[in-house]
Design brief:
two-stranded antiparallel sheet; eight-stranded mixed beta barrel; Membrane-bound Lytic Murein Transglycosylase D, Chain A; 8 helices; single chain
Length: 273
Amino acid sequence: MMKGIDISKYQANLTIAQIKNAGYEFAILRGGYSTYGIIRKKMIDSAFEKFYQQAKTIGFPVGAYWYSTAKTMAEGEAEAKFFYKNCLQGKKFEMPIYIDIEDKNWQSNDKKGVTDAIIGFCNYLESKNYYVGVYASLSWFNNKIDVSRLKNYTKWVAKWVVSANTKPTVSFSAFDMWQYTDNGHIAGHQVDVDQAYIDFPSVIKKAGKNGYAKETQVSEPKETTNVTRIHVVKAGETLSGIALKYNTTVDALVKKNGIKDKNKIYVGERLKI
């Protein structure tokens, strides 16, 4: 389990170093958001680049989220395209990329529409090889989102409690991150606190997601009988000891190296194995 926080321009006076020194293991950065008005503008969070660069400097795991007002598949995809172009492209993230669903003005009365928006957002970023998910409160997951259509995406549930000792019970498929309070404190700043139940950095890097190249397993080369190795004789070594080291025999070494007296080898002599 990993403990982290999620931050935006409202915590701009914090630094990633302060977050790390406070014992946290990751941060989810707000990359951007759509505004509330009739003309819903797409905006970049003013603290995003600062937090991201600080995280890269000290090797601190980060993910990103987009605050959404989308309620159609096309709107969700449009937000994802803006997010990718202006925040994600060319960067590496060790934690997932989320769409944040909670806007009461546009989303709360359109269950199908907001679910379509989530799918449009997530499908676009998946096509760009990102590990994606959905953030919402438990009540929104239960009542305002059709969770049955979101089985392919990781879920980040907000349900504030007094203690983080008991993971909340949900009626839908398992979730992988829990925002359990808004009452964390770092250097005088109040922050949301999260628990991740998956080692996301390992999963994401191994799979080659979020800007990382896929890890490949390097196999040790197999020994073959036609490969000749060279051993340089050191002080105190014997032919029998060298033969044992390389899983061969004294007679084989004598024959391969044209040794006249198997009891006489010399420091610095190069033996074919």
